[in-house]
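User: Please fill in residues for this 294-position structure.
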């Protein structure tokens, strides 16, 4: 990292979990606003997504790597050697539904490895380079699930609480460096997230963007048994639906700064998580879990 630019001087954006859903839509918006791309996912759909993104006319590098593993993270970091990453959207994540006493410990660990461990491992070299340059934008896909305990998805909600706390802490640390940190806090959105998390019978899976902000924040009750599901996704301008870190998001401790959020193209809006691209209001889908996104 911290080297040349690809594509004749265009800014470079890194997006993880970019094969579908939120990650793909973020990549598309970055491309439409003149960013070359490095896109990552674990699944075979990444190459198809990369081909579609190249149709926008920007340079796209696809790095297939499983970020649940240290080796996968190292592979992605190595692919960035010699490049200057102007914006990094750490979006890859996975959910797991079910009572904690019933879920497979290996699935629980997979949630932690991707949502927590890979986020820390990737943020370290990216943020170091940005701070050294005195400019850069680091983004995290958090969730409204970060704001509450999550019955029947306890590890997932806890992992998102970590991401939210981590993002807010980093925002404070880099406040005077020229680097911005943004956390998206989406609510339920119609994507593959619920299928991959084993939650296809939840109301959130079927109603997604139609719920009010209060409904999302309260969790989404399952149809039959009553477990709650606070799944996540992203509308580009969340309005009353999703929450955004910064002006609208929850804070702990002293007030987080609100003047430094990342901007994409010419439509960003400060550290409140802001609008993506030109602030379009089309709902953005959710990536499909595992290492390829949420």
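Assistant: Residues filled in for all 294 positions:
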């Amino acid at each position: 990292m911290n080297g040349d630019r690809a594509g004749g001087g265009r800014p470079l954006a890194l997006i993880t979990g970019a094969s579908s859903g939120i990650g793909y839509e973020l990549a598309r918006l970055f491309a439409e606003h003149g960013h070359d791309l490095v896109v990552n996912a674990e699944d075979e759909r990444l190459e198809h997504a990369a081909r579609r993104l190249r149709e926008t006319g920007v340079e796209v590098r696809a790095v297939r790597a499983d970020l649940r593993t240290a080796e996968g993270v190292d592979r992605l970091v190595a692919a960035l050697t010699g490049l200057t990453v102007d914006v990094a959207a750490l979006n890859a994540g996975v959910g797991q539904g079910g009572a904690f006493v019933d879920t497979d410990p290996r699935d629980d660990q997979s949630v932690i490895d991707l949502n927590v461990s890979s986020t820390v491992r990737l943020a370290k070299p990216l943020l170091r380079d940005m701070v050294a340059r005195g400019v850069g934008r680091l983004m995290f896909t958090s969730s409204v699930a970060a704001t509450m305990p999550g019955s029947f998805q306890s590890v997932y909600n806890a992992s998102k609480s970590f991401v939210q706390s981590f993002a807010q802490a980093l925002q404070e640390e880099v406040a005077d460096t020229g680097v911005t940190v943004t956390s998206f806090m989406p609510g339920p959105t119609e994507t593959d997230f619920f299928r991959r998390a084993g939650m296809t019978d939840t109301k959130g899976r079927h109603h997604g963007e139609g719920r009010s902000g209060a409904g999302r924040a309260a969790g989404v009750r399952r149809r039959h048994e009553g477990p709650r599901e606070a799944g996540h996704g992203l509308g580009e301008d969340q309005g009353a639906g999703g929450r955004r870190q910064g002006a609208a998001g929850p804070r702990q401790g002293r007030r987080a700064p609100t003047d430094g959020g990342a901007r994409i193209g010419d439509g960003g809006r400060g550290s409140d998580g802001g609008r993506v691209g030109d602030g379009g209001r089309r709902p953005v889908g959710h990536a499909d879990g595992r290492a390829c996104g949420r």
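For context: Helices lie at 21-32, 45-54, 70-79, 105-133, 154-173, 193-196, 203-207, 213-217.
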